[in-house]
Amino acid sequence: MIRSVKVIIVGRVQHVGYRHWIGRHARRIGLDGWVRNLRDGSVEALFSGSAKKVKNMIELCFEGPRLAKVIDITASPATPPVEAGFIQCRD
Question: What pLDDT, on the 0 to 100 scale, is given for residue 61?
Fold first, then answer.
């Protein structure tokens, strides 16, 4: 069963390589979706894949790259992406 969630990641998550880190890990895990910076300084991502892989990715997001400091992550159900693969959106 495919699960899709949109997450908002709050903290020091911009200008620390966080989007690239998410993209690398999401592709390694085998998820579809995307990641982008938001104007308020948070990061938004869509993860789509097996429930186990999505849960694993959300847990990994609390770690992030070395310079990141995640304060909170909120997840909500989402529509799966139209295209397969994982995309890092530009700012």
Answer: 97
